[in-house]
Amino acid sequence: MAFEVPDLPYDYNALEPHIDEQTMRVHHDKHHQAYVDKANAALEGTEWADKDVNEVLQNLDKLGDKETAVRNNGGGHCNHTFFWEIMSPDGGGEPEGELADAIKDKWGDFASFQEEFKNAGVNQFGSGWAWLIHDGSGLAVVSSPNQNTPVSDGHTPIIGCDVWEHAYYLKYQNKRPDYIDAWWNVVNWAKAAENFSAAS
Question: Using one digit for the tens of pLDDT, what is the confidence trace for 13-37?
Fold first, then answer.
């Protein structure tokens, strides 16, 4: 089964005013579709063509001359599929339960975690992502360039913020910090809690 762009779990304008409708349309319909098309083209006719994207991304070293194309485009598909789910019109606020406790244990309080996460996004040079991951031993904040994904390292993303310019430039221009500040208002902490439970 070739990769497909999933439908958004909400309307294109549902994340307004924090993420604008025009950005969501271009981001989902054009950028994500391009990653899917290129990943499918790279894997066509190989033993990996019908495998789950996460499995493919955990075996990049076995893809030979397809590795870079799949890292970039399969990673783009994986990251964006995750990104749509980790946002919600009912998002924002703070996590609860075990995830909240784990963040407090690691960073002392939620605000300190937010600051480290924002710094990871703001200071990611060029295009990339900021992540809260479970690395097998506990929570960590990391960033990744381009469409690299923690999945390739065997880590579980809990939340991830797309800091490619296409994710925010129409509304925020070059003000990436303002975009990240606004993005907190749409974070789907219920989904994040599910990701954390699955990882731990």
Answer: 999 999 999 999 999 999 999 999 9
Q: In this predicted structure, what is the pLDDT of residue 82? A: 98
The structural domains of the chain, ordered by start, are: 21-85 (1.10.287.990), 97-199 (3.55.40.20)
pLDDT, mean over the chain: 97
- What is residue 200's predicted lDDT score, i.e. its pLDDT? 83
Nearest Cα to Cα of residue 87 among 6, 168, 19: 19
DSSP the chain: ----PPPPSS-TTTTTTTS-HHHHHIIIIIIIHHHHHHHHHHHTTSTTTTS-HHHHHTTGGGSGGGHHHHHHHHHHHHHHHHHHHTB-TT--S---HHHHHHHHHHHSSHHHHHHHHHHHHHTS-SSEEEEEEE-SSSEEEEEEETT--GGGGT-EEEEEEE-SGGGTHHHHTT-HHHHHHHHGGGB-HHHHHHHHHHH-
Q: Taking the chain, what is the end-to-end CA distance rounded to the nearest angstrom?
A: 30
